[in-house]
Amino acid sequence: MVQFRDREDAGKRLAQLLAGKNIEHPIVLGIPRGGVPVASEVAHVLRGELGVVVARKLRAPGQPELAIGAVSANGVAYINHKLAEECGADDRYLADEQARQTEEASRREAQFDSHRHAPVSGRTVIVVDDGIATGATAIAAIRSMKWAGAKRVILAVPVGPPDTIDAMRREADEVYCLAVEPDFFAIGQFYIDFRQVEDAEVRKVLDEFERATSEVQRRPATIRRDGVNLASILAVPPGLTASPCVVFVHGLGSGKDSPRNMVIAERLLDAGFATLLFDLNGHGESDEDPRGDRAFGDDLTAVYNWVQSQPGIDATQLMLAGSSMGGVVAAEAVRDGRLNPPPLAMVLRAPPLEPGDLNAIATPMLVVVGSRDPLLASVETAAAGCPSARIAIIPQAGHLFDEPGALDDVLDRTVAFLQSAVRLPAETKGR
């Protein structure tokens, strides 16, 4: 049985699942109250907008805890007519109850989200809750977003029972659930900490997300070298005159939109680092160089030189994060003295190293590899020949670190290692 530490942990794991699903700039709507902390983590990683969608249960006559349906703030409802009839809820009762709960849903949505709820027409909307049991409120929320004109409505939850998840697939365009649990009794059984979320906490989560996302500067740019255009995006965190910056070098077949690199970049932004992700030549939106991978070192050199002159960047505190073949590109550029000033530190994630690849590199580096990665032996050999290299082996992880908890481990080690190489003002750490 899956178990989450708390709603924040569930949200981070759910965000990792969604990061590779080609969802661009969504509106992420949490169902208050418990769904909002989960939705915040999803919106942060997917670079979406955060808000709420309130759906209220329609109560059975004389049994206020029994839901015979649900209704959203815009009046769109779901009614289990068979259950309603069994409970003696006639048409008049249903109309009165629907009117009462629609008014309350509208009041609560305005209380939480009156100035934040982005128009959903033509947009991708992700409806998020901390779990799903009967699914009544989720169905009302999904239907309300479709009624409002959303182009694509996705339901994302950490946990739910099989029959309810199947029912959701008939309502939403897509459904993502981390754990479909047959032995489902209540959502709380899957959380270590499932304390009640108060209204004030919902408003705090929304306020903090708004402050953080409104202040981060994201600057798409085209970096030119030797007639080749390289597409990039520089993100600079708030609160610092000049930030240390981590330049990412993606692997073959990937790009600046690599889900794993994006997740790591967001965590570094939270920790006070600027991040630069770019497409190597022939990848993503960058031009193709006839020399192909033989020109990757030129790509990195050009990008590294360019970022030093950008506003908000501390040119004396640059670092590298290379994944797979990108780790080899980064290591070769440092070894060959192509980067000036040399980076303060670098993290290489699952690089296909050969013996001697890291020799003569003085830059402190962390080499991260999974215990089940076929590259483990060659990585260990290469790291052993370099005094400046530390190796971190992620237990039970393969080459992509897509096992439960593996990427979290990589995130924690990456941030801690890079933080140890720079001095960040105290107010930015763990922001």
Task: Provide structural commentary.
The structure is a single chain. It is built from twelve helices and 16 strands. It folds into two domains: 7-212, 3-Layer(aba) Sandwich (Rossmann fold), CATH 3.40.50.2020; 218-428, Rossmann fold. The chain has helices spanning 7-19, 35-46, 81-86, 91-113, 136-147, 162-169, 199-215, 259-270, 296-307, 325-335, 376-384, 406-421, and strands at 27-30, 49-52, 55-60, 63-72, 77-79, 124-128, 152-160, 174-180, 217-225, 228-236, 243-249, 274-278, 313-323, 345-349, 365-370, 389-394. Residues 425-431 have low confidence and may be disordered. It is 35% helix and 25% strand. It is an alpha/beta fold and 431 residues long. The longest helix is centred in the first third of the chain and has 23 residues, at 91-113. Helix 1 (7-19) runs parallel beside helix 2 and helix 9 packs across helix 10. The strands form three sheets. The chain has an eight-stranded mixed β-sheet, with helices on both faces. A five-stranded parallel β-sheet has the order 2-1-6-7-8. A three-stranded antiparallel β-sheet has the order 3-4-5.
